[in-house]
Fold this sequence. Notes:
The protein is α+β, with helices and mostly antiparallel strands. It is built from 3 helices and 6 strands. It is 31% helix and 20% strand.
Amino acid sequence: MAVISLGNLFTAVAVFCALITTINATNCYNTTDPNNSNDRGKKIDCGSYTYCTKMTAPSLGTVRTCGLVSDAFCNAVGDGNCGAPPTNLANLPVTSEAGANLCCCKSDYCNVSASLSHNTVLISVCLLSLASFIMSKLV
Length: 139
């Protein structure tokens, strides 16, 4: 049986978890009917955009896409979080409307649900699996 040093195991774990947390979204849902909140839309390749977005506004409905806002806005709001949309979106004049909400997320097709954060679950599963593996090697 091969023996794995704790130093090598720690390095492998650190690299694996770092890769998981830096994966960028390249695929998002793009709304085809904003007035139907159950319509996910079509799956699209977002190219260089980092975030998927989901915007809701009383007069607009629900818009799912990528590239709706700058990465700077989504970085400020945070992955999996929502906030009031910026008022300088020329193609969506309802962004200053009361009740408008814009959510940003980074994992593929994450802009479909009410809760956009999938990374927390993924990282937790990763860490629990690795802890279990480490414990099995120590015993």
